[in-house]
Specification:
Oligomer: single chain
CATH topology of one domain: Glutaredoxin
Strand content: 15-25%
Distance between the termini: 20 Å
CATH architecture of one domain: 3-Layer(aba) Sandwich
Structural class: alpha+beta
CATH class of one domain: Alpha Beta
Strand order of the largest sheet: 2-1-5-4-3-6-7
Helix content: 25-40%
Largest sheet: 7 strands, mixed
Number of helices: 5
């Protein structure tokens, strides 16, 4: 059975941040869309993607939407990675047995799921894909009533796509 896809209801989840705060997807969706990103500290494609995800936070701020970076690694490793890459979103830990990953069944890392405030998955992206990142940016801009920002410029020295 395939994992979560566009149009599906996002499975509910409650996870801990690397500093031990409990976060609920339902609670954060009450404030706006949530971009859920499943990743691993050993994923080189994630290394490529996170600076672009940070650009979303820089472009749209932290109000009215959330970036959930759901790590499949222990809290200490995840926090160190977050510091190294200056991650601007919430770093959450999937925990033992990867309960959130089991619910979403991401096909690779990184896997992105833009969940609209009503709880449905509006867009997905697997691996590193500039076109998908810019599409997510456009969708966030609509929710926030802002002009869309191109976060992944062609010809910026990085490939347009890299598998995860």
């Amino acid at each position: 059975m395939p994992g979560v896809t566009v149009g599906d209801r996002a499975p509910p989840m409650e996870l801990l941040t690397v500093d031990g705060r409990r976060r609920s997807l339902a609670a954060d969706l009450a404030a706006g869309p949530v971009l859920v990103v499943f990743w691993k500290t050993t994923c080189r494609t994630c290394d490529l993607a996170f600076p672009y995800l940070n650009k979303l936070v820089l472009a749209y701020g932290k109000g009215g939407w959330r970036l959930w970076a759901v790590s499949q690694d222990p809290p200490k490793q995840s926090a160190e990675y977050g510091r190294r890459f200056h991650l601007l979103g919430d770093i959450l830990v999937d925990g033992e047995g990867w309960p959130a990953s089991c619910l979403y069944d991401p096909p690779a890392t990184p896997s992105l799921y833009l969940v609209e405030p009503g709880g449905r998955v509006e867009a997905t992206s697997v691996a590193f894909n500039k076109e998908d990142l810019n599409d997510i940016s456009r969708r966030l801009a609509v929710y926030l009533g802002r002009e869309p920002v191109v976060v992944a410029e062609p010809g910026d020295g990085n490939p347009d796509f890299r598998p995860g």
